[in-house]
Design goal:
Number of strands: 0
Distance between the termini: 43 Å
Oligomer: single chain
Structural class: mainly alpha
Strand content: under 5%
Largest sheet: none
């Protein structure tokens, strides 16, 4: 367990929180404007992964490293899936162009023969999309594990929000895997909004990396030191080296 953080690490987690906040904003805009918010979300996602990379240069956490690698792998698979779907669509149009031109319905035999290759490519794309979803689920799980194992790194409230946020996004990824059902899709949207909102609280991290326990010890020591400089009975100032109070005569 990592018990302390440097100012540099705190800065990177604050930056990560900022990026989660902007991802939340553009995620919500996705329901109003097409394409552009999604593209900006992608940009902020890679910026967030870069912030984690910088923080992990010092922390050297396997959970953070797995979070990054799984997330990047999921993006690669999603890109490949999109490419395969486009290729499958183009091949299907070429194969059935004569039927499209004449506006006739192909026979079952022609449908199976001409649609075989585009169909196989499409199925491969769907399988890769499922794998990408599993990787994203695992990525958020690793981030959640990091925040659980290292909760003392952050102020209690922010630490709790970070754990809940990564857990919500893990749940959202699981719901997305069940996307062929309507209710899980709706739940995934709700959990994703809550997850980004919770993780964005990391932007409120203090600039100092001093752990909470050190601050508590320091405060306690200061109070004790202040207390022994004065008589506990009458409050008069204690003379250095004295055993009895010069004011009330009581023993210290």
């Amino acid at each position: 367990m990592i018990e302390t953080t440097s100012n540099n690490v705190n800065r990177e987690f604050r930056q990560f929180g900022d990026e989660m906040f902007y991802i939340l904003i553009f995620f919500l805009l996705n329901f109003v404007i097409a394409f552009i918010p999604g593209l900006i979300m992608l940009i902020y996602s890679f910026k967030a992964l870069n912030s984690i990379k910088k923080a992990n240069k010092e922390l050297k956490s396997d959970d953070l490293e797995d979070f990054r690698s799984y997330f990047i792998s999921s993006y690669v698979l999603i890109f490949i899936t999109g490419t395969l779907v486009i290729i499958a669509g183009i091949l299907a149009v070429i194969a059935f162009w004569s039927y499209i031109e004449t506006q006739t319905i192909p026979s079952l035999e022609a449908l199976l023969t001409l649609g075989l290759i585009p169909g196989i490519i499409f199925i491969i794309g769907v399988v890769m999309l499922l794998i990408a979803g599993i990787l994203r689920y695992s990525a958020w799980g690793n981030l959640n594990e990091f925040f659980i194992k290292n909760s003392e790194m952050f102020p209690e409230e922010i630490s709790q929000d970070a754990r809940n946020g990564s857990k919500n996004l893990k749940t959202a990824s699981l719901c997305m895997l069940l996307g062929f059902l309507i209710i899980p899709i709706l739940l995934s949207i709700i959990y994703e909004i809550m997850g980004y909102a919770k993780l964005s609280k990391l932007k409120n991290l203090p600039s100092s990396g001093t752990p909470k326990s050190s601050q508590a010890v320091e405060t306690s020591s200061s109070k004790t030191e202040g207390a022994i400089n004065f008589c506990p009975h009458c409050g008069a100032k204690k003379e250095e080296g004295a055993t009895f109070c010069s004011s009330c005569g009581e023993r210290f």
